[in-house]
Amino acid sequence: MTPQSEAREASWRFADVYLVASALVQVALIVVVVILVIQVSAVSAANHANAVTACQLANTNRTEDTTLFEELLKAPPHPTAAQLAAIARDLALVHKAYALRDCVALYSTGKS
């Protein structure tokens, strides 16, 4: 074997080793990316579930607050028409302010 052919063969061996090492690094990077995507997806699903649960708990509080205000705004034994109108107006404001939220629709994945 001539020195030139030995050099050429050594060069091809180096290229083969480089290509194999490069392919292994690429596979390792792909595996890392896939693992990270799976973890991010799991965290995102957990955050969504927590947001829906928190919204449902807030709805429970809204219901309790509305009940409290309805009790506080009960008409006196012999209310006048003006008192009834004021109570009705105040109750409408309470029901608007403490309206329940549609938690699933509010935190659906299609909305941003």
Describe this entry's structure for a reader.
This protein has helices spanning 3-72, 81-97, 103-106. The chain is mainly alpha-helical and 112 residues long. The mean pLDDT is 90.
Give a quick rundown of the structure.
The protein contains three helices and no strands. By secondary structure, the protein is mainly α.
Number of strands: 0
N-end to C-end Cα span = 69 Å
Helical stretch tally: 3
Overall pLDDT, averaged? Answer: 90
The radius of gyration computed from the alpha-carbon positions, rounded to a whole number of angstroms, is: 34 Å
- Name the shape in a single word: rod-shaped
Helix amount = over 70%
Q: What is the string of SSEs from the N terminus onward?
A: HHH
Unreliably modeled segments: none
> Structural class of the secondary structure composition?
mainly alpha
Q: Largest sheet, described in full? A: none
Strand content: under 5%
Question: Key features?
Answer:
112 residues, mainly alpha, 0% strand
